[in-house]
Amino acid sequence: MDSVTQMHVARQGTVTREMQRVAEREELAPETIRDEVASGRLVIPANVHHLAKRLDPMAIGKVAKVKINANIGNSAVTSDIEGELDKLHHAVHYGADTVMDLSTGGNIDAIRQAIIDASPVPIGTVPIYQAVQEIGKVEDLTADDLIGMVEHQAQQGVDYVTVHCGIKRAYVGLALGRVTGIVSRGGSLHAYWMTHHNQENPFYTHFDKILEIASKYDVTLSLGDALRPGSVADASDKAQFAELDTLGELTERAWAKDVQVMIEGPGHIPMDQIQMNVERQKKICHEAPFYTLGPLVTDIAPGYDHITSAIGAAMIGWYGADMLCYVTRKEHLGLPNAEEVREGVIAYKIAAHAADIARGRKGSRDRDDALSRARYAFDWKEQFRLSLDPERAQELHDESLPSEYFKSAEFCAMCGPKFCSMHITREIERNLGVREPVGAK
Cβ contacts of residue 319 below 8 Å, gap of 6+? Predict the structure, then answer.
């Protein structure tokens, strides 16, 4: 069977339409995109079936802007198709670059199909969730059930799948003495299956079959970190790094078959360990794109984990992570609603943008500078327009000063007309005949 993957075509020296589109979006030469895809440092998650609908191709990797993912999906407790489409709309509207459907409740096929049909951004999944939901008991799953579900979702048009291929039977014991054990849902399911049957992970032993499916539909493999730390106490331990070593091996096996791969990273890391984690992943996995959940840098803020994780996300993006999976305020507490999706996406757009500035991405600071000039000119409408969330910015301004007059006033409700430092500075400049703000470019 001939491969249809972007990596396969890139290695033949061809620039695809998808690579051309990515080059436009990233403001890079098409040949640069092609060469990075060929090397494995850049992935374009674009299932051939989703491309035939409304997917707008994007890329994740070293030369691209830092991307963010938003998780949606139902549970056995709550949500339906309309609710998930509302979350999708919020995620895409506020800037998510990809969306993962993590549904574990009922009607999963219909929900996923509706999401794929409606989504212009790549859709990711974790196939083992649906496999368990349909079979009922983890221990009753077979290798054929698991592999079959990967192909089923690939046929639907999923652009990337999280497959926990790196957790081996020998690694499970390394995580059992942790403060929080195994916190990856997929990881815990695989661990339970392996210990129940005393057999190796089917996703590891049948990895070549997964590669065949990925090659057939051009599904990017997101190699899951089943043993990621779920608390700062468990960060950077033997379990996490044993699995990482295996992911490095699987990366090379995937590339040998021209299959695109990215590596998932830990969810809880104290700030002083973030740089080391990125450098270790990039070395072991040969610079394959790094996709991280957060990380959360402290564990004491339930209800505010969009903040604790965005701190870590900005740092890990600065040090070289390529895509950041958002965390909402509902993390550890419940299933997020549409408004919490919006809030999580904005928090992570801030983190990703801050990382791009720190990494010196060409043009990444242009919007900041434009907003700062509008701020100094008291052009409130332009400030709102340039904001990541214009509606929220205007809403907060207008709580105290709603009338149209205050859209050009040289003060806001914090300082008032007498204590605004920028207004005072502008007065000094007027008195001295300075035509342009000092330091303006």
Answer: 274, 275, 278, 279
Short-list 274, 276, 277, 258, CA closest to 309: 274
Report CA 186 to chain centroid distance, whole Å. Answer: 17
Distance (Å, whole) CA 295 – CA 437: 39
Please check the confidence at residue 210 and state whether its pLDDT lies above 90.
Answer: yes
Cβ–Cβ < 8 Å for 244, 250: no
> Residues near 189 by Cβ (< 8 Å), separated by ≥ 6?
128, 132, 138
Q: How far is the C-alpha of 193 from the C-alpha of 202, rounded, in Å?
A: 9
Q: What is the dihedral of CA 33, 36, 41, 45, to 10 degrees?
A: 40
* Pick from 354, 273, 277: nearest CA to 68: 354
Overall pTM surpassing 0.70 (yes/no):
yes
Q: How far apart are CA 90 and CA 70, in angstroms?
A: 10
Q: Contact at 8 Å (CB) between 341 and 328?
A: yes
Sort 122 into a burial class: Cβ within 10 Å, 0-12 / 13-18 / 19+.
buried
- Scan for tokens 């709309």, then name that residue: 89
Cβ(232)–Cβ(270) below 8 Å: yes
Binned at pLDDT 50, 70 and 90, residue 439 comes out as: very low
Q: 366-376 and 421-432 helices cross at what angle (nearest 10)?
A: 80
- Residue 431 phi/psi, 5-degree rounding, is -65, -30
CA distance 180 to 233: 9
pLDDT tens per residue, range 22-41:
999 999 999 999 999 999 99
